[in-house]
Amino acid sequence: MGALVTVGTAIFVAELTDKDALLLLSLATKFRARIVFAAGVVAFAITSAIIVTVGHFLVDYVPVSWITLAGGTIMISYGIWSYLTNQDSDETADVERKLSGSAQKGEASVFLSTVGLLALLDLSGDATEVLTILFVARFQNVVIVFTGAVLALVAATAVETTIGRKLSNILSTTRIRVFSLCVFLVIGAAAIISVLLNI
């Protein structure tokens, strides 16, 4: 139970500041929230299954401490890079442009397009992917990590789609980027420290 809570909490917080969150917040202001939410749930279930499977096989061939050190370093690097380059906003804008054509074809088209594009965006390089693999290495239980990741991502999607309009008015892009940087620095540093102190 403790592992499930740890996985769920960390991924939930990380997802709220990730590029997927920016996309979902934006889509929730343009399309029906229930369509965006359903698409997010399906996309994240698919990507979580893929990532947990990759993590499971990775643990079989690479020492856990190496995975944890690499993951912590990637988290810190990703946080700094996305803060300095604002790359997430560019990727989100590209996906939104691709979805604009689907909106005219109806809700089913918006749903399917959102699932596909969100899954591709998530798998193209995402902090929650690294975090998920870190948890697979740490707990070595794919069922717990998959369950925790999906629950966290569904909860984050619910928050982003139900209060997307209000949240986007309160949180500026700069504030989200600063919060995102802090989250990734803390998680990355915690992973590295846990290896160095052999926790």
Query: What structural category characterises the helix and strand content?
Result: mainly alpha
Low-pLDDT stretches are: none
Gap from first CA to last CA: 19 Å
* Helix proportion: over 70%
The number of distinct helices, counting runs of at least 4 residues, comes to: 10
> What is the strand content?
under 5%
What is the domain tally?
Answer: 1
Characterize the overall form.
Answer: globular
Largest sheet: none
How many strands appear in the DSSP assignment?
Answer: 0
How confident is the prediction overall: mean pLDDT?
Answer: 78
Work out the radius of gyration: 16 Å
Helix-strand topology string: HHHHHHHHHH
Secondary-structure topology with pairs:
Blueprint: H1 2-16, H2 19-28, H3 33-61, H4 64-85, H5 87-103, H6 107-123, H7 127-139, H8 142-162, H9 164-170, H10 173-196
